[in-house]
Amino acid sequence: MSGRTRARACPERTCVGCRERAAKAELLRIVAIKDACVPDPRGTLPGRGAYVHPAPVCLDQAVRRRAFTRALRAPGALDTKALRRYVEQTTVAEQATP
């Protein structure tokens, strides 16, 4: 070998809120369980997933555009209360730690 190290490509996903591509690690995976959007921070829940930045702005855009229903191929409207609570808690926790 020539001694060069290979840079591994990190997987990218598209945020359903702002439609920007970002590294998979920067986005929050969302899964539909029954009639609700559930956050999947570890990425291990079964089923189809959608990705969103863990920011209230992107979450609001996704809800307004009905992006979760489309991306998760849900038959009807999805409840996003648990998801909103999770995003708000993580945003507050990030702002609290310097």
UniProtKB/TrEMBL annotation:
Transmembrane segments: none annotated. Residues 13-75 form the YlxR domain. PANTHER family: BLL0784 PROTEIN, YLXR DOMAIN-CONTAINING PROTEIN. This is YlxR family protein. It comes from Streptomyces olindensis.
